[in-house]
Design goal:
six-stranded mixed β-sheet, 21 helices, flat, alpha/beta, Rossmann fold
Length: 659
């Protein structure tokens, strides 16, 4: 267990956060959330022992193995991808190398050599140990994890230094997964992954047996990997026993309850003040007035305050200019770079008001297709037509390079929306993570991420009827993504979107365009519909050899029947999920109560072990009755803790009871 007690971090006279107590237990699946700048990464580093707090203490269990994926780019190694991944098995590699050396020695020694039996015995020990550690499966394990995170077979022998920073971060993540630490701390692990790699990471983490602590701006990822949320906001630290969606709902409920309590308290304060004001000069009521004054002091000292949090904000995009039904169309389009064909024979229509999401692995050609639609690149073959009424706004990472470095952030946006009020412009910029005086920074001094956010803000405010966007969420936090999601959902124009944020794709788009294996395919529906249809396709392909004449005569197949069964199971699963909400909340409340009781007993055990008045105090042993009383309490607490830990495990596995 990792325990932070009353941890404070200050910079000069300014507190980043104060008196935070955080216990990270065994086999937990938790996320740390909060706005940018709240101190999440700092708290991460303190929990890992990489940074000392200004105040408070950190304690942790012995022999725990910690794994940490930071946000910052890692320096490249001098080896190849596979060799670097295999470095996590250095101890087992050393066993293999010694065994191979002994094998060569055995081959060189004559049968009568007196050292041969000892060499054979040592070789047998090493061989047995290596087998017990699944040593012969290490390379295949490393290759499997690397492939799951997007590396191809021909990448394994390439030097790490030839890969971009994003791919080096993937390699670092692969090494962490192969190490299988007991505590895994991941800071924005999905930043450099495509959708397929995210799916792999999620499935891997679901099987992970240790504790995971995650910082992520990917809501879909958090919903599928964690069951507890710690919120760090405005110096406050709160716990929610739910995934991210449940956390949002519970946070709203807590705020509503707090608002009601605040209203009741305000009414009581008003009544007390009214009584004091009415009878202040009365001799007969002086005792009652004095009592009310004391009551008022207590009420004011315990005044309920509702955290202001981030103000809700809606970004209303400009009304799109009038256009006909079709804004652009591709017919039989092929794109080549030299001898390489990215895709061939692509047909795609962009209709007014439709929202398309492009999916596919990195390098499949999604960005290339966007560039053709935006007119940045021509097709190699085929026909592209664009309506004369189409007004295109195109966002790509290079869009940030077109900003005027001499302008301020505020001036850059004012240039696009000159009729907006200064307050409205500053509010818009705040939602894109430019708070306060940051709006007066010169573009020239902005970081790459800040320039990308500013370019996205300008693009969204342009009066266009066709928005084409390549990875607009890369530098947004969860609040910024929520603003973008709301704006795109309500936008009445046409959107073509490439993003690795599956939640936004699921909530915004009505058509999925898959770019894969040199083809462009269209799937009506959102991301959830697309995944289900792909599962159906997989079932159908798997069942093709199972056809029989009777099925052919009836115009059906075993695959179709199985697909229908899958659909029915999917619908039933959705129904059961809705029905299980009450049970889930009951279990979450039980877990919270157990954790509170466990924490209380653990604190008491520390008191019992203390050198002052506890079992570590020599003076206690001079009083036999007192010593026996403390020892009995200590042993009883140990038994109770074990019982509570068992119940906690049962509840987390879904088998909890009310015993």
């Amino acid at each position: 267990m990792i325990q932070l007690t009353n941890v404070t971090v200050s910079f000069g006279d300014q507190d980043l956060f104060r008196d935070i107590t955080w216990n990270v237990g065994l086999n937990e699946r938790v996320a740390l959330v909060g706005p940018n700048g709240a101190g999440k990464t700092t708290l991460f580093r303190i929990a890992l022992g990489l940074q000392q707090p200004s105040g408070g203490t950190r304690t942790c269990s012995r022999r725990m193995r910690l794994g940490y994926l930071p946000q910052e780019e890692l320096a490249p190694s001098t080896g190849t991808v596979l060799a670097e991944a295999m470095t996590v098995f250095a101890d087992r590699q050393a066993v293999l190398e010694e065994a191979e050396e002994l094998s060569r020695l055995m081959a060189a020694l004559p049968p009568e050599d007196p050292e041969l039996p000892a060499v054979i015995e040592r070789y047998g020990e090493l061989h047995h140990r290596f087998e017990g550690q699944d040593g012969y499966q290490l390379e295949s394990r490393a290759q499997s994890v690397l492939q799951g995170l997007g590396f191809r077979g021909d990448d394994f022998g390439r030097p790490v230094a030839t890969f971009s920073g994003g791919w080096r971060m993937r390699l670092a993540l692969a090494k962490l997964l192969l190490e299988e630490p007991s505590y895994l701390f991941l800071d924005e692990p999905t930043n450099h992954l495509d959708i397929e790699s995210m799916d792999y990471l999620e499935s891997y983490l679901r099987e992970f047996r240790g504790t995971m602590v995650i910082i992520s701006h990917d809501r879909y990822f958090l919903d599928r990997t964690v069951n507890k949320i710690y919120e760090l906001e405005l110096g406050r630290f709160s716990t929610y026993h739910a995934n991210y969606t449940g956390y949002l709902a519970e946070k709203d409920k807590r705020r509503e309850l707090l608002a009601k309590q605040q209203q009741e308290q305000d009414r009581e304060i008003e009544h007390v003040r009214e009584f004091i004001g009415r009878w202040k000069g009365s001799y007969t009521k002086r005792h009652m007035v004095t009592s009310r004054e004391k009551r008022l002091e207590k009420l004011l000292a315990a005044r309920i305050e509702i955290p202001s949090g981030a103000k809700s904000f809606r970004l209303n995009l400009p009304e799109p200019p009038h256009a006909g039904r079709f804004l652009a169309e591709l017919r039989g389009v092929t794109k080549r770079y030299g001898d390489r064909t990215v895709f061939a024979g692509a047909d795609l229509s962009l209709e007014h008001g439709h929202k398309l999401g492009l999916v596919g692995v990195n390098g499949a050609g999604k960005t290339t297709l966007l560039k053709i639609l935006a007119g940045v690149e021509p097709p190699s073959a085929g026909e592209k037509t664009v309506s004369p009424q189409a007004v295109i706004a195109y966002f790509a990472q290079h869009t940030a390079e077109m900003l005027d470095p001499a302008r301020t952030v505020y001036e850059s946006v004012e240039q696009v929306v000159p009729r907006e009020t200064p307050g409205r412009i500053r509010t818009i910029l705040g939602s894109f993570l430019f708070p306060g005086d940051d709006v007066f920074k010169k573009v020239a001094v902005l970081s790459g991420g800040e320039k990308a956010r500013l370019a996205l803000c300008r693009t969204l405010l342009l009066p266009a009827n066709l928005l084409i966007m390549d990875e607009p969420t890369n530098h947004l936090d969860l609040k910024g993504k929520e603003v973008l999601e709301q704006a795109l959902r309500e936008y009445r124009g046409t959107v073509v979107l490439v993003t690795h944020d599956r939640y936004i794709i699921d909530q915004v788009v009505d058509t999925i365009v898959e770019v894969a294996d040199g083809r462009v395919r269209v799937f009506p529906g959102n991301y959830t519909d697309y995944i289900w249809k792909k599962q159906q396709e997989g079932l159908a392909l798997a069942e093709i050899p199972q056809r029989n004449p009777e099925d052919e005569r009836k115009g059906t197949t075993a695959a179709a029947a199985k697909a229908a069964a899958v659909k029915q199971d999917w619908q039933e699963a959705k129904k059961q999920k809705a029905q299980s909400t009450a049970e889930l909340r009951r279990r979450q409340r039980a877990i919270a109560e157990l954790e509170e009781r466990i924490h209380g007993i653990e604190q008491r055990q520390k008191q019992l072990e203390s050198p002052t008045g506890g079992l570590a105090d020599p003076a206690v042993y001079s009083d036999g009755a007192r010593m026996k009383e403390l020892m009995n309490e200590f042993d009883g607490n140990k038994r109770e803790l074990q019982r509570l830990y068992d119940r906690w495990e049962h509840h987390h596995s879904g088998d909890g009871d009310d015993a």
